[in-house]
Specification:
The structure is a homodimer. By secondary structure, chain A is an alpha+beta fold. In chain A, about 35% of the residues lie in helices and about 20% in strands. The longest helix of chain A has 23 residues, at about 430-450. The interface between A and B is large, with 82 and 82 residues.
Chain lengths: ~475, ~475
């Protein structure tokens, strides 16, 4: 496989012909505007491609997507599928010679079934918009990446996105029943079911989820729509002297059998930055924010409060939705508080929950060794940490990569994984082999080739170091 | 790919050499006893292989499994992986020339982590035994096939097994975090994580689950161990005049936002057979048994009772565990009540929950058309029906296959699937293409070849019509 530099292709088509073929098939859904091309060079990872793609196409129908893929196959042109561009690993960044296939015009909720607790959607629908449309039916779509106000369901599927609610409500893989997928050669297939259960053949639905645009183009998804949890929520905000203490409290909460809907942990330097940003009076230390929902919310939150206090946390408990919202404002201010400091590399390791205190200690050591600050927040209920590396300039400097490298290896040593919910994309390819090993990586590449024998789907991403 | 009839193999080894190589490597873990060979000709599907396999090996360690697979690869000998032999689709049935790899000696619980809510097990551990060993830790493994007293966790993984609790607690795929797998050529790989989240590369863990022994040999599994739900259970047993009425009541219960742990529906002819077997006074009609657990059990069961009564159900509600157990005795007597009538083909279609009444109607029509009785029970919470076909003699007669064929096509027409939890195995291969289509079936075969290029893992099963 190679990137697009190898034009003209085997079929003798040159780049102008590709654009002309696309225009013939899709008309004004094809753009070569500088602004459109330029936008596709980056996502929210901080990485910018050195070159712009060939063309951006924005298909309106499944037939349009099939036409694009047939032209791409015929002309051996690489295709980067892209939703809202909110990815954090460079998976939807496009470069010279590539077709960007934007899903943003395929953004409809096609069907809602309250009885079957499912919805059928197009990939370009925004997460928040889907939930707004489901709410009148008393339903919701559980995966909730922090970007949900602007990110697409197709993007969730591409990365197996998580969010704040995963420990209780699951990740994207648990929320998708079936997919319609256009293959690299333009054929349309249906994977999975409308049913809750189904074991007919290999689970290609699960294989697609998290495949980051390397296997096919999702054009329709049948997703679970859960009933909205009735009743009040109760929220605890607790301060601890150290992040290790806060992490220990979060472990005790889960170990005591409580099931928070959300449990967010804010590390010491992260909390300092947030306090600066919000102009709070902050004595130092770490913050743990825990929310319970459902009929047991009050009882469970009181039990959690007792645990927190017995472990030295200074905490407030609020059953009031507006006050809950205010407590979460602290957590929501994390990204803006960091973004104003410079370019940010948002990392995403996941460790077994019990290893959370050890992982925070390891990050502290790396901070001291490299003389840098690594503001970190964590979805404590599932051991998923987001350490943030701040740097000047467009490119991640070597000492930051060296620090990130140590952090990844620490996570792997603790039984963890390189990425909990963001994916490999461009930016984590160099560590993929450390986790999978050579043999598994080769097996994954072979499966990729079964779906995409010409290597035109998102070449250079995920599998290629 | 071919079955074993093509011996001597490419390497020139004959069958005696294969057994000798296995004995050299595994000593007394290798058996050619008639009784062992004969047992591997059947499972619980009612189907019996016309011939006995070559040899049964019962490895004790991962290294043993690797040795078996190396010999199988070297001699091109097919391998059928087998747990407790409780499958219902013929997936672990072995024939002439095949090595049976029994997982039954690899039956240990290797690790329990209460903090990380996980257990590490070998594939041969019996489901009930795992739960007995987890109980002192306050944990349980949720997948609960009806065979759980005698079936293995490896078997659950091979078929993505479900059971009574899936609507609330998920199927096997939701319960497995990671797998150690020996490939066809003897290499050992690790798929997945110990973490709750993880998106490093393609999801090979999910691909393995439900692959019915066609991709590799699972030698270790890291599974979720949930905290035991505290508090009482409450159970409703309700009689309805017709199965359509009972199915409608089950749909109303879910539609009203209640989340039963178990909701079992017993069709009319099934209920008649159970009443005969238990010598109950039975006026006819269908039975719905609903169980709630957790802190809301009593409140939820009272709401469900009101729905049932408003729909014409005659019901009793019991919060007493012993009485609950007695109510479930009716459901548990279904299989013995049918088994004494003759050979039984236990089918396993799944439809969207809202289509449950329509599917029962379709089964009623097939009963009338063919002049046969199709006693049916259903896991109503997830639309999974088990229609049972009773016949005389060892082979399924043509008119029974014809009736089953109509039933499968009805399920597909209603948006359902051929198999909710039993798998394709040998017995459903002929309908696989109806559900997947030619293109997807070919893609599945190609992925199978990536894992097993020589086609020695469970040849003739699942993918080959």
């Amino acid at each position: 496989m190679s990137t697009a530099a190898s034009f003209p292709s085997a079929s003798g088509t040159d780049e102008r012909d590709v654009v002309a073929l696309l225009r013939d098939a899709l008309g004004d859904a094809v753009s070569t505007d500088d602004s459109a091309l330029s936008a596709a060079r980056e996502d929210k990872s901080g990485h910018v491609s050195p070159s712009a793609p060939l063309v951006v196409v924005t298909p309106r129908t499944t037939a349009d997507v099939q036409a694009v893929m047939r032209i791409a196959t015929q002309t051996r042109t690489p295709v980067v599928v892209r939703g809202a561009g909110t990815g954090l690993a460079g998976g939807a960044i496009a470069s010279e010679g590539e077709i960007v296939l934007s899903t943003l015009a395929m953004d409809q909720l096609l069907e809602v079934s309250r009885d079957d607790e499912l919805a059928v959607v197009q990939p370009g629908i925004i997460n928040a918009e889907l939930n707004a449309q489901l709410a009148p039916h008393g339903l919701w779509f559980a995966p909730d990446p922090a970007s949900r106000a602007i990110s697409t369901v197709g993007g969730n599927i591409a990365t197996n996105a998580g969010g704040l609610l995963c420990a209780k409500y699951g990740v994207t893989r648990e929320a998708v029943l079936g997919l319609k997928v256009v293959l690299a050669d333009g054929r349309l297939l249906e994977f999975g079911h409308r049913t809750v259960k189904g074991v007919t053949g290999l689970d290609f639905t699960a294989l697609m989820i998290g495949s980051e645009g390397t296997l096919g183009v999702v054009v329709e998804a049948t997703v679970r729509a859960k009933r909205i949890t009735p009743g009040p929520v109760a929220t605890i905000s607790a301060s601890f002297e150290s992040v290790e203490d806060a992490a220990r409290a979060s472990a005790v909460i889960t170990a005591s059998g409580l099931a928070p809907a959300i449990m967010e942990l804010i590390g010491e330097s992260a909390m300092r930055r947030i306090a600066d940003y919000l102009e709070l009076d902050h004595p130092g230390g770490s913050q743990l924010i825990v929310q319970f929902d459902g009929p047991g919310a009050v009882v469970e939150s009181e039990a959690a409060l007792a645990s927190i206090q017995s472990l030295g946390g200074v905490a407030t408990l609020s059953p009031d939705p507006a006050e809950s919202e205010r407590l979460f404002q602290v957590r929501r201010s994390f990204h803006p508080s960091i973004a104003r400091l410079g370019h940010v590399l948002i990392e995403d390791v996941c460790v077994p929950r019990s290893a959370l205190p050890a992982m925070f200690s390891a990050i502290g050591e790396i901070e001291r060794k490299y003389g840098i600050e690594i503001p970190t927040v964590a979805h404590a209920g599932d051991g998923n940490l987001h350490p943030n590396f701040v740097f000047d300039g467009d490119d991640v400097p070597d000492h930051i990569w060296a620090a990130a490298d140590e952090m990844f290896l620490s996570a792997l040593r603790l039984g963890g994984t390189l990425t909990g919910e963001h994916g490999i994309g461009l930016l984590k390819r160099r560590w993929l082999k450390d986790e999978l090993g050579d043999d598994q990586l080769e097996l994954q590449r072979q499966v990729k080739r079964v779906f995409d024998p010409l290597g035109i789907l998102n070449p250079g991403k995920v599998f290629e170091a």
